[in-house]
Hints:
The chain is mostly beta strands. 4% of the residues lie in helices and 62% in strands. It is built from one helix and five strands; from the N terminus they run αβββββ. It has one helix at 4-7; strands at 16-26, 31-42, 47-57, 61-73, 83-95. It has a five-stranded antiparallel β-sheet with strand order 1-2-3-4-5, with no helix packed on it. The N and C termini lie far apart (52 Å).
Amino acid sequence: MQKIDAIVDVSDDVRDGIVGVRSLVDLSDKWWLSYRFDIGTGDSDPTGYASVQFGSKYKWGSLAVGYRYQHNDFSPDFDLMKDIDVYGPVIGAAWEF
C-alpha cells in the first residue's frame, strides 16, 4: 500500500496575484444586481472568475439567482491537477437579523 504523500507531493502550492472589480447596484428599493470579475496570474497560467446575481429584498433578508464561471489553468509542473472550469447557475438566500 502506498502512502498518500508518495502519490501527491504535499509541498505543491500555487501563488497568484489577483486584480478585480465587484459592485452591488440598487435597481430600486426592492431589486438589486451584483457582479464580480477578477483575473490573476503568477505560478499558474491566467486564472479568472466572473459572476452576476440578480436579487430581491424582503423584510427578513433577500433572495438571489445568478450565474458564475471560474477558470484555473495550473502550470504543467503542478502535480495535483492541470486545469479546472467551474460554471453554472447559483441561487442564494440571506437572512438579516
